[in-house]
Amino acid sequence: MTIRITERIQIDEAELEEQFVRASGPGGQNVNKVSTAVELRFDLRRSPGLPEAVRARAVRLAGRRLTKDGVLVIRAERFRTQEQNRADARERLVALLQEAAIAPKFRVKTKPSKAAKERRIKSKVQRGAVKKLRRERPGHE
Asked: Residues 88, 76: contact at Cβ < 8 Å?
């Protein structure tokens, strides 16, 4: 089965590795007995379903969730059930990859036009003239 990221990008579920561990935080005796937290591992660097540009952006977005080997680790322990935490981890993986799939807009550098430069110089000259008039005190020549 595949997980759909965008229309063109899909990853195979076999690429995901899930490990269930004990969650921290409140929950009484249940926390000590049941492994409800999910640790989802996805090998970003070796995934055949990801284009190179998306992979590079995903590595940058992953930050400290990425291991030295290029494996993305997402830990989900918000909910009290394994199923909810599993779905949460997968949703967070898809959200990260969807964000990485959006190519940044290319910024075209522009320069001010000749007319804009002239307007700027004209306003500076006018401002200088006003300041000069303020320095000259009337009647004291």
From this structure: yes
Determine the Cα–Cα distance for residues 111 and 116; give it in Å rounded to an integer: 10
| Assigned domain for 14 exists | yes
**Residue 9 DSSP one-character state:** -
What's the pTM value of the predicted model, to 2 decimals? 0.69
Instruction: Give the model confidence (pLDDT) of 64-122 as tens digits.
Output: 888 888 888 888 888 888 888 888 988 988 898 888 888 888 889 999 999 999 999 99
For 30-45, what is each residue's pLDDT tens digit?
666 777 788 888 888 8
The number of distinct structural domains making up the chain is 1
Integer CA distances (angstroms), 82 to 29, 53, 103, 104, 114, in order? 16, 33, 34, 36, 65
CATH number for the domain harbouring residue 97? 3.30.160.20
Assess contact for 21 and 35: CB atoms under 8 A: yes
Residue 139 lies in a domain: no
* Beta bridge pairs of residue 12: 2
The token pair that represents 90 in the structure block? 């997968």
In angstroms, the CA 93 to CA 13 distance is 12
Classify residue 18: in a domain, yes or no. Answer: yes
